[in-house]
From TrEMBL:
This is SIS domain-containing protein. InterPro entries: RpiR-like (IPR047640), RpiR-like_SIS (IPR035472), SIS_dom (IPR001347), SIS_dom_sf (IPR046348). Residues 1-112 form the SIS domain. It comes from Proteus mirabilis. SUPFAM superfamilies: SIS domain (SSF53697). It comes from the Bacteria.
Amino acid sequence: MISAKRIVLFGVGASAIVASDIFHKLIRVNKNTLFSADLHAQLAYSANLSADDLAIAVTARGNTADINRMLKAAKQEGCITVALTRFGQDEATRLANYTLPYFYDEQHSQLG
């Protein structure tokens, strides 16, 4: 991450809130970082990455089709990819070069 020319974050739904928080922390330390909550902007970012960039996908379950499509596009461009996802075997974990797992145990009763 230190040597990346640009860091691009992906996240939809509640994961976009986490991606936005990471974005704000990275720009405070002067990292060239892109994030948009707009899905179409994220898809455009993923298609314009290079081997000099770093893509970080935030996905709680790791099975969001659009996020996984962005990970695939980033890897096709030679970009290093990271999945910030719950611990386990999911599609995002298989697609990313690196995984940063976290504990996630949302219960449907918590949704109100």
